[in-house]
Amino acid sequence: MKAYRGHLMHVRGAPMLSDAREHLVSEPDGVLVVDDSGRIVYSGEYRRMPTPDAEVVDHRPGFLVPGFVDTHIHFPQTYCTDSYGGGQLLDWLERCIFPAESKLADPEYAQVAARNFGARRIDVGTTTALVFGSAFPHAQDALFAESISLGLRTISGRGIQTVGPESAAALITDEATAIALTGEEISRWHAADTGDSSTALVHAAVVPRFALSVTAQTLGALGEIYDGVRDAGVYFHSHLSENVAEIDAVRSIYNVEHYLDTYDGKFGAGSAQAGKTLLGRRSVLAHAVHCESAELARMADTETSISHCPTSQLFLGSGTMPWRRTTTSGVTVAMGTDVSAGDEWLIPRVLNDSFKVHMSEPGDAAVSLSAAELLFSATLAGARALDLEERIGNLDVGKEADFLVLDPQRQPLLPQMLAQIDVEDSDRLLFSLLMGMREQAITRVYVQGREVCAQASQPC
After folding, report:
1. What is the pLDDT of residues 21-52, one digit of tens each?
2. Whole-number Å distance between alpha carbons of 21 and 333
3. pLDDT band for position 454 (cuts 50, 70, 90)
4. CA nearest to 218, candidates 180, 186, 189, 184
5. pLDDT given at position 85
6. From 146's CA, which of 124, 188, 228, 459 has a CA 20 to 30 Å away?
7. What is the reported pLDDT for 459?
8. Does the pLDDT value for residue 456 go beyond 80?
9. Cα dihedral sign, 71-76-77-79
10. Which burial class, exposed, middle or buried, applies to 21 when counting CB atoms under 10 A from its CB (0-12, 13-18, 19+)?
11. Closest by alpha carbon to 280, among 324, 222, 237?
């Protein structure tokens, strides 16, 4: 066993967002004891550690925090951050993203992109990610293989498109091919590392880009596929209500009352039930900026979660997801970078944007998110959204040891800034750490108790 000593900070237990502050743990001289299977067997004060014979790795004055969970990030957009599209979502997709994603048709290019994508995740401490995949099977093969080699938690599915503009031509397949490739990917890669979804690091997902990239027939066929694999732990992931023009187009083309209806099997004229629902406890929809109350209620009823991507919403001018209204609806809201519309890979930078935009909501909607709520959104909420809460999300005993070592000394001015705060003032200390840290402060990244490195063949 190994004991990792440092300032322990996490949100313990299984609270709701509103209770996160009462569940915040801040142990200045804390320790995590991890057994050979990669599970936490003790988490708390160092002086009470019950295993004195454990090998102690002293990271003081560094912090020990849970690994970050990114619930929405695009693998084929690895090189696309800060792409100027001259407009909002639909313009940006057509001018920048579809041509960039088409480059992954080259297997060698896709392999390098997968390598860089994995390395970048380690740089920023993203131990678990729900990844929007490439349209090309060889690129997805590279992504999954690299994730297994590095030891990262990855949930992904090929980006499904059966209709679209000329700029997306290389990404589009006919419906029969789309369904066949989706089924093949699930068979090949779901829980491929262990053969058991309850222990696996890699999982497959059904991932249509969004309602405008497929047809009602495609959604019907995907519903049939998903209905047969959801109990095996396969995920569903797509975009929802990101942009007003997008919503209008979906309503017009599908003749539905609500955008969400298209994913709920209600894609018949007038929102008539026409297929099986894609919603459920392992379904995560990105953005949900402009959802109506009925849509939020339906997501809460089905345990469908939202990936909140404030950085991306700022970059594309999509608007602000109303925090109070959305979170009080009962829907789990977790954080997503949305790289590359989001131009920040580091989840704490997304938290920084989240704090600012929700402070700036109009009138009574404005909210000052606490440090515990921010940390919860970046860790435990993500684990809950991905139905992995029993395994990861905080540093409780029994969880798999996904954690980061943060060393403020590695970042200019950060230690001096933190030194101004009483170590017992956990709210202020955590807030300043999350708001002020950059990736230089991340010195060690662990998944299942194993240190992961950007080059799997090299020692860390």
Report:
1. 999 999 999 999 999 999 999 999 999 999 88
2. 16
3. confident
4. 180
5. 84
6. 228
7. 72
8. no
9. positive
10. middle
11. 237
> Model confidence over 162-193: pLDDT tens digits?
999 999 999 999 999 999 999 999 999 999 99
Token pair for 127: 């131990």
